[in-house]
Every structure is written in C-alpha cells, then in structure tokens.
Design a protein that fits this description.
This protein is an all-alpha fold. It contains two helices and no strands. The protein has helices at about 1-10, 40-55. The relative contact order is 0.11.
Length: about 55
Amino acid sequence: MHRARSALANGSVVPVLPERKLPDLVLHAITPRRDEHLAKVRHVSALLADHVANYAV
C-alpha cells in the first residue's frame, strides 16, 4: 500500500473515478473461544486491527 501512496504522490499513477467511493470494509477474524486465545493469535489480531485502522477514511 505504501508503494501506491508514493506513486499517487509523485504522479506516476492517477486515480480513476475519484468520485466513486468503495463500500466500507468489514473484516471478521474467526478464532477459538476468547478465553483460549494464544498470545500469537491475540498479537496478530491486534496487528490486523491497527493496520486496517490506518486506512480508515
């Protein structure tokens, strides 16, 4: 995604149909019971949530 932002910023690509808005993203993570989450599952879930939040408009 950073490459796309750079390309837009330097003008090497241009938006197509900029007036068109994409629908909101809905993302679900399906995991075992909440009280049994492994640390790595909690960590990846948190990373994904942060990553997706950075692209909120």
